[in-house]
Amino acid sequence: MIVRDFEGWLANMLAAQPWAGQVDRWSTGSGPKPVGLTLAGRLHLQLVGGDQKAAPLDPDNAGVVPAVQASPSDPGGWAEAITRTVAEAGLPRLKSAETYAAWGGSTKPGGMRVVFVDGSELFASILPDIR
Fold first, then answer.
1. Is the preceding peptide bond at 34 cis, omega within 30 degrees of 0?
2. Which parts of the chain have pLDDT scores under 50?
3. Which of these, 107, 123, 106, lies nearest to 115 by C-alpha position?
């Protein structure tokens, strides 16, 4: 999946979650990197990876907006809530979504690894508040 497509899709999924607050995309269209989201005006989620040659995301196969109950307060809690949102959306291209803690492939305090059926992977890392 193209990382910018995922950024827009994830923004839509999270905007429907009361715990996510206001969701702002860092980029639109084919603008410069970085790609990511700011949630609740303070949590920064940087997205990297994906397959830039993948077909664009078809809105008819974008899954459903799940109602995820969560009250995240730390990077691990945010990662869990975001990962559950991705997993429960039923995106047909999704093979798996797991937090960094469950995956074990990163020592960062919060984030997720998303694997798609085409073999491409995306990583979302929670960054410290830069303000």
1. yes
2. 131
3. 123
d(CA 62, CA 106): 28
In this structure, the number of other CB atoms found within 10 A of the CB of residue 61 comes to 10
**Residues 99 and 72 sit within 8 Å (Cβ to Cβ):** no
Q: What is this structure's pTM?
A: 0.91
> Which of 73, 65, 52 has its CA nearest to residue 118?
52
In this predicted structure, what is the pLDDT of residue 32? 60
Check residue 60 and report its DSSP letter: G
- Name the amino acid, one letter, at 112: M
How far apart (Å, rounded) are the C-alpha atoms in residues 22 and 19? 9
pLDDT given for residue 29 in this prediction: 63
Enter the tokens of residue 121.
């992977």
